[in-house]
Amino acid sequence: MIFTILKVVIGIGCIIALIHFDFIDFSLLANALSAPGVVLFAFACLLITVFIGALRWQILMRALHAEIGYLQSLNFTFIGQFFNVFLPGAYGGDFVRGGLAYRLHKDKLGAIMMSSLVDRLTGLVGLLVISLAVLALIPSQFQFWIGVIVVTGLALAFFGLVAAVKFQGIFISLIRLMPGPVERILMRIFKTVVGALEKYWNRKMDLVAAVALSVFQYVLVLESLHLLGGAMDITGLSWIGYIVSGVAGLFANAIPISPGGLGIGEAAFGQIAHLLEDQATNTAYSSVFLLMRTLTLLTAVFGVIPFLLYRDAVNAVTREKDKLQQGGA
């Protein structure tokens, strides 16, 4: 709990600092109200990403032989978002979503956990793919090191998957060197992970589809940033600048030192935007990312509807987590 409070303090502190140093300008946010149609379209782009995320999770669950209908996946995904936004630190959205899926497949706990993990990883890979695609658009002084980071990330993801599947004997030998109780726990986890990876390895097109959906999600997010910048009447940044700054902001947003990267994503987006603007200005570019974040949070409001529909199941899941926490206390 203390870490959650600390993260919230860091996030709020970052936003206050950005306002103090004129990286966030509320007059720009007010400008966006003069173009409600554009803002609504940007919101629609962000809302569609939830539907895409539900499809991606369904594909990843199906690859592990844990069948789930698309409507169920969509409802569980919205409920997970609702918990992430409105009950941060109490019950993780992934835990609630997975718990609801577990009630459908009591014998698929490992598969459900792995599908959530791989869901996160394919999202990261999708962002890396976009980063690689826009590498040529980045100023030359940054191209080399950013290229090294992106290529290294993709290579580690691929070869980590290959190593875990193809060299199981080495990992098993290392685990067997552990003390008895630790060995049994690690062996069970390892076999669950490798079993899931083998299934994904044999269904590579499902992974390709999941990454492709992630890329599409981020394209919609980047387009929403571009639309919101236009609604704010910000003219100093080209569409290429929005793409590059947006990718930087989304990467920074994944840094887990504040809730959802609050303040971190805004700072990164604003700094990179200033480097890429056509002529040097004092435009508070971080305002664009902040508005995009606000609209993203609003999409979670739709989670109220499936939450009410599945209220009994959600309550059962949260009670189970409470029991686990009390048992470990």
Automatic annotation (TrEMBL):
Bilayer topology annotation: Multi-pass membrane protein
UniProt KW keywords: Cell membrane, Membrane, Transmembrane, Transmembrane helix
Protein's cellular compartments: Cell membrane
Membrane-spanning segments: 5-21, 33-55, 117-138, 144-165, 207-228, 240-264, 284-310
Main subcellular location: membrane
Classification via InterPro entries: L-PG_synthase/AglD
Keyword Ribonucleoprotein: no
Presence of the UniProt keyword Membrane in the record: yes
UniProt xrefs under PANTHER family: BLL5419 PROTEIN
Protein name: Flippase-like domain-containing protein
Species of the source: Sneathiella sedimenti
